[in-house]
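Researcher: Structure for this, please.
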Amino acid sequence: MRAQFILIAVLVGLGLGGCVHGPPPLAPAPDPAGPYILDSGDRLRVVVFGQDGLSNSYAVDASGRITMPLIGPVPARGMTTAEVSQAIAGKLKDGYVREPHVAVEVEIYRPFFVLGEVTTPGQFPYVPNLTAEGAVAIAGGFSPRALRGPVEVHHQGSDGIIVDSVPLNYPVHPGDTIVVAERWF
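Model: Predicted structure, C-alpha cell format:
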C-alpha cells in the first residue's frame, strides 16, 4: 500500500511539474560568426586597386550610404562588406574603371551605449568580443544602487528594436544599448 502511495505521489508530481512555467527563454544572441551587417556610424576602409584617388575611409551616414568620388552615394545599411564591395565595383564598371577590384573592410564599428545605474553612462567605441559585463566595466562599473544581475540589451532586429533581459556574459554588438536597472533594496 505504501509503495502504491509513493508511486502515485511521484506520478502526480511529474505531471504537475510540466505545468510549471519558468521565465521565457532568451532570444538567441546574434551569431558572432555570421557576417557583420553595416549601419549608420560604421566607418569603412575602401580600397580600389590601382585607383589611389578612390581608396579612402568613408563613414556610413544617417541615410545608410557612403559617398564616393565619381560614383556618388552607394547604399551600405543592411549590407555586408562583400555586398558593398560588389555595389561599388558595379558602379565603377559603368564607365569609370574597366575592371574594378574593390575591397571593403570595417575600420571603426558603430558605438554602443550604456545607460542606467553605472558610474559613467554614455556612448562608447565598440571592441570585438564584448560582453554586457565588459560594457558595464567600460562605463565605469556598477553604481552603488545598481542591480548587479541581468541587464537589458536593446538591439536592432529585422522587425525593429528587440529588448532582452540577459545575463552579464551575453555578447554585445555594435549599436546595442545596455540598460542597468536600479535595485530596490
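Researcher: Any notable elements?
Model: The radius of gyration is 24 Å. The mean pLDDT is 85.
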